[in-house]
Amino acid sequence: MVELKELDEALFRGEVSKVKELTRLALQEGIDPKEILEQGLIKGMAVVGEKFKSNEIFLPEVLLASQAMHGGLEILQPLLVKSAVRAKGKVVIGTAKGDLHDIGKNLVAMMLKGGGFEVVDLGIDVSAEKFLKAVQEHEADIVGISALLTTTMIGMGEVVTVLEEAGLREKVRVMIGGAPVTQEFAEEIGADGYAPDAASAVDKASELMKSLGRE
Amino acid sequence: MLIIGEKINSSRKDIKEMVENKNKNFIQELARQQVEGGAEMLDLNIGTIRKGEPESMRWLVETVQEAVKVPLCIDSPNYAAIQAGLEVYDANRGEPLINSVTAERERLELILPLVKKYQCSVVALTMSEKGIPQDAKERLEIAHQLIKKLTAEGIPLESIYIDPLTLPVSTNIQSANIVLETLRGIKDSYPGVKTIIGLSNISYGLPQRRLINQAFVVLALANGLEAAILDSTDQRIMALIKSTNLLLGKDEFCKQYLQAFREGRL
Hints:
The complex is a heterodimer of chains A (about 220) and B (about 270).
Chain A: H1 4-12, H2 16-28, H3 33-53, H4 59-82, E1 90-95, H5 103-114, E2 118-121, H6 128-138, E3 142-146, H7 150-165, E4 173-177, H8 183-189, E5 193-194, H9 198-211
Parallel strand pairs in A: 1-2, 1-3, 3-4, 4-5
Chain B: E1 2-9, H1 13-20, H2 24-37, E2 41-45, H3 53-67, E3 72-75, H4 79-87, E4 97-101, H5 105-117, E5 121-125, H6 136-152, E6 160-163, H7 175-189, E7 194-198, H8 209-222, E8 227-230, H9 235-247, H10 255-262
Parallel strand pairs in B: 1-2, 1-8, 2-3, 3-4, 4-5, 5-6, 6-7, 7-8
């Protein structure tokens, strides 16, 4: 009998093959894919996020845990789709136009996936138009924008503007982050949320889903 | 090796506050400590201050110049901030270093006239519109382009500092190797051009960062590094640089090493 606790522990240690094996075993034993996802993978990534925030584990360990999570997710995904388990929400994410720094953005994307969100990663140097197109194409709930430079932060405001012009502003929430970004700046450009780190970003995204009435 | 003090950088929260509040004593003390530790130039980076970066840079240059005599490295992607800093720079203390240009055309075209007007040295990052190349080969390709362009504009080879861009080893285990290979490649093709790195980025995301920085500076020196932006108040790093230079045959009669010993710096 597979204990899902074992699964989230293997994920925490970044053991990709063990996570895959335990996920398969759990499925063979008839455990609901949704439960494996929530009690195994999501719970495991939540611990990873917390420990990273409190400096008990380090960046490479988060990356490894995330690989392990993907290993499990790959196996679960087709079954989750079949049984119509919906993601918590859909997030379109990228770095602001002109900004090539993506460590923070990648971490947030990982933690969001680990938190049960569907993530569309647009990569680096993403123009406002590209964000808009992705929101329309994927019917995203949330747009996540990251910037490390004060010179590229301005691009975040442009995303808010193009969403307004396209008449989509009410349908989608905008959250931002990155070293120079503050809550004050978020309010200034009319973004809906700011998160200081990757673990808080998941909480913030959940909060924004609630405000959309789509939790 | 040119030692550039890294500490006046607003990505550190306390520094950001001190610059925003124009805390003269704090900044001047930080400048003195770094020079005392062995910095021969100080880097001024206030990239995380969004409102009034030019004005803050001007204040910072004036404030630091009042406290120490070393030349300064004006570190910003923002053309206006660089210009503001250079306007009040005291040329008597030696050539300032502009940090930085890239192969991105817009940035290059805005900053190049400043390099010429104020007779600065300039840091050129090996990245282009397409971002930072994953391997040394492409970074060298960009370095060649930059050197060609800068020398064509009349900037002397020895005023060009190529920065191969140090990314954290925590997100790509080959990060240090890529930098070392690029450093070697640059020195092979252009012995006259200078090389520079920002040292501390290598250890981002890991515990005991100093240890990694210390090992990296030794490796980088052995592969052709000539200038580094680093923590000059870290005595271990400074002593390692001295002993590595000695081993690389760059310290005739072990003069600098022995002087450091007598000053209690080893």
